[in-house]
Design brief:
The chain is α/β, with parallel strands linked by helices and 492 residues long. The protein is 53% helix and 8% strand. The chain folds into three domains: 115 residues, no CATH class; 205 residues, Rossmann fold, CATH 3.40.50; 112 residues, no CATH class. The protein has 17 helices and eight strands. The chain has an eight-stranded mixed β-sheet, sandwiched between helices. The two termini are 23 Å apart.
Length: 492
């Protein structure tokens, strides 16, 4: 169980508050709490205090990025990943997957025309409406709550012109099914029926990466196809995440349940040959019949994994939080620092060219007219120096601004290439000040010891949240229930 007392102790000790000026740091401005974060906090207030606190840590991270100029006032890093528990289903050409979906969600939905599309990635969402609804892919692309948020941008990068055809690849279906409450199902198109292309590969990888549980029907491995090979490669990269369950639809199991172990062993050997060495195996004699006694154990195991997917979601969200914190130091700042270095080099080179031109002109003037005596004159010399500075400094500033515009374009393109929501160009623009143009400062504005310390604190809080989430499953010598704010307990 969760330990709210322990949670309150930790965050009260850290003096956490949505008021950013309570952090003890001098901030430029206080960022408004995102409505999305407020809704998340309200949603998890009663049943998941860890995620409720995670929403607050996300706001602290938003405040830091806002101070750096990386985020707008209405943006939040919490929308990088969906907070829904996500289950994806991948199958081959047989009806095993579609039969399971209709059986698991209710057989009446098959009659309602909700058979999964053969060529689209379909997100299934619970709805209280009795009549199912099919919505276009744009509903997923523009809503940051769903796992395909802004996927059209990645599709466009993969294949020019395809980003505008998002409705050809995605759709959202709402179903009045109790088993969908609080979850999202992603029904991938039958892998052997989809033409292999860069967009299909992208969507398949994205589906697996964002899922907390992946049900793979073994008929997907019955044939050889380029997309099957890419599926195997993706599973290999993520198989240590313990998110894969292999569903074996074997009618022979209904005649002799003792064959289950033999069937599983056979598939384990086959998949091991493909490099797939982890994952749970479940044998179903017929996916359309949940009442069949031979299937009850299999469906019970699936139900248990569905229950645990909420915990998997919590760990995924905390991992996303930790990753977002880490990427500021490992990705965002290095990219802007690199841009500043290139900017400085170009400006210095341009300024040196102008100085070289002036020196060359002075040498010719000395040869023709003999102006050296004027330059070392105690009165005329300083005047000439002041005039030279008055010319060079404005030129240096002008060149800095012109070169800065080129760097801004490069950083904007780099941001899209890396799929970052952080505004790299905006942070760079904060360096286009008079002092930073003249002084040899290479670190981005605002990136200092205090900012690094704030990020370190957020990392520590995230680790604490992971430990608190672990306490939901067990405690170490029952110490997690101790109130550490009580000084009497510190001596025990």
């Amino acid at each position: 169980m969760y330990h709210p007392a322990h949670l309150s102790v930790y965050f009260s000790n850290s003096k956490y508050n949505y008021k950013s000026n309570k952090h003890g740091f001098n901030l430029m401005a206080e960022k408004t709490v995102s409505k999305y974060l407020l809704n998340l906090e309200k949603n998890f207030a009663s049943d998941n205090p860890v995620l409720q606190k995670a929403a607050k840590v996300f706001h602290e991270l938003d405040q830091i990025e806002y101070d750096l100029g990386l985020l707008g006032n209405d943006e939040t890093t919490a929308c990088k990943d969906s907070w829904w528990p996500i289950i994806s289903l991948i199958g081959g050409n047989s009806t095993a997957k579609s039969g399971f979906i209709n059986s698991y969600l209710g057989s009446e939905y098959m009659l309602a025309g909700l058979q999964p599309s053969s060529h689209k990635f379909t997100v299934l969402l619970h709805s209280s409406q009795s009549t199912p609804t099919i919505l276009p892919g744009t509903a997923l692309d523009v809503d940051h709550r769903y796992p395909f948020y802004q996927i059209s941008r990645k599709i466009e990068q993969q294949q020019a012109g395809e980003g505008d055809r998002i409705n050809s690849y995605l759709e959202l279906k709402t179903i009045n099914s109790d088993r969908l409450k609080g979850k999202l199902f992603i029904d991938a198109p039958n892998i052997n029926a989809v033409s292999s292309n860069s967009v299909a590969s992208l969507l398949m990888r994205h589906t697996i990466e964002c899922s907390d549980l992946v049900l793979i029907f073994t008929d997907a491995f019955d044939s050889s196809a380029p997309l099957v090979d890419e599926l195997v490669e993706t599973i290999v990269r993520h198989q240590d995440t313990n998110k894969f369950v292999y569903i074996i639809n074997e009618p022979a199991a209904a005649l002799n349940p003792a064959l289950n172990n033999e069937i599983i062993s056979s598939w384990q050997r086959k998949l091991s040959g493909l490099g797939l060495n982890t994952g749970q195996f479940i044998v179903l004699s017929t996916v359309e019949n949940t009442i069949n006694p031979q299937n009850q154990a299999g469906f019970a195991a699936i139900d248990q994994r569905m229950v645990n997917v909420s915990y998997d979601r919590s760990y995924r969200v905390l991992h996303s939080l930790e990753k977002s914190i880490r990427e500021i130091d490992s990705v965002v700042i290095p990219e802007v620092t690199k841009g500043i270095a290139i900017w400085k080099d170009r400006v210095h080179f341009s300024t040196l060219l102008i100085l070289g031109f002036i020196i060359t002109f002075a040498l010719f003037a000395e040869i023709q007219m003999g102006i050296l005596d004027l330059l070392i004159d105690p009165i005329i010399g300083p005047v000439v120096l002041i005039v030279l500075i008055a010319i060079i400094v404005p030129l240096h500033i002008l060149i800095s601004k012109l070169q800065g515009k080129l760097i801004i374009k490069q950083l904007t393109a780099r941001q899209k290439e890396l799929h970052l929501m952080e505004n790299l160009a905006k942070l760079f623009e904060k360096n286009l000040t008079f002092s930073r143009m003249l002084m040899p400062i290479t670190e981005p504005a605002g990136w200092n010891k205090k900012t690094k310390a704030r990020l370190s604190q957020l990392t520590d809080k995230t680790k604490e949240l992971v430990q608190l989430l672990n306490d939901n499953f067990g405690t170490y010598n029952d110490r997690s229930s101790v109130n550490y704010s009580d000084p009497l307990n510190l001596a025990n």
